[in-house]
Design brief:
Radius of gyration: 17 Å
Number of helices: 3
Distance between the termini: 20 Å
Largest sheet: 7 strands, antiparallel
Order of helices and strands: EEEEHEHEEEEHEEE
Structural class: mainly beta
Helix content: 10-25%
């Protein structure tokens, strides 16, 4: 079985945001799908280790900002490469607005947003799927949405060449590199939280 077949699926990229007790947080996800048109419902799947996951579980509300092709790598670093448990991801960031449900929306490098209210959850082990009714949505620009393939080809910087005698294992998702003779089977990427199966020997 070739796990790389999954990379042939087309994914969008999104900033998922939540608010709980006055605290705002967000993370990058690629798992937003429309599930019905009438009523308008979407699903999102979020890693349980993310603070945003817990905030959504506790409040039942969230916002999704659709990342566009004009997004910079700084947007991904801000919302995808740090933990909201010890970082205020919105500090010093002006490309936001507050939505009607009290959740911050990312307006810089995005082309649309959706606000949603959770109606059902599905436990998927490491992740939770939230099925939600869309309560508001708007188009911000006509710039095309960024796909995962577009991100890797045009937004993510090429990694600097490293000279080392050690083996290097590279995360196919975010590019993080692990040095060591063997990559542990239970290893989790410290940046994007993907498992060892998403690493390849460089």
């Amino acid at each position: 079985m070739n796990d790389k077949a999954l990379f042939k699926l087309s994914y969008g990229l999104f900033v998922l945001t939540a608010n709980e007790d006055g605290k705002d947080n967000g993370c990058i996800i690629n798992t937003v799908c429309q599930v019905t048109n009438n009523p308008k419902q979407i699903s999102i799947t979020v890693n349980k280790s993310n603070l945003t996951h817990d905030m959504i579980k506790n409040t039942s509300k969230f916002a999704v900002s659709v990342i566009a092709e004009n997004a910079t790598f700084e947007l991904f670093k801000r919302f995808g490469f740090a933990s909201g448990r010890d970082t205020d991801k919105f500090a010093g960031f002006d490309g936001v607005m507050t939505a009607g449900n009290g959740t911050k929306l990312v307006t810089e490098g995005t082309n649309a947003y959706l606000l949603a209210w959770v109606t059902e959850t599905v436990d998927l082990g490491t992740h939770t799927m939230f099925i939600a009714t869309v309560t508001d949505m708007e188009v911000l620009s006509d710039i095309p949405s960024a796909t995962y393939a577009y991100y890797h080809a045009h937004i993510k910087p090429a990694p600097a060449e490293k000279k080392t005698d050690k083996k290097v294992w590279k995360c196919r998702i975010c590019g993080y590199e692990y040095e060591g003779e063997d990559l542990p089977d239970d290893y989790i990427c410290p940046i994007c939280k993907h498992p060892a199966s998403d690493f390849e020997l460089v």
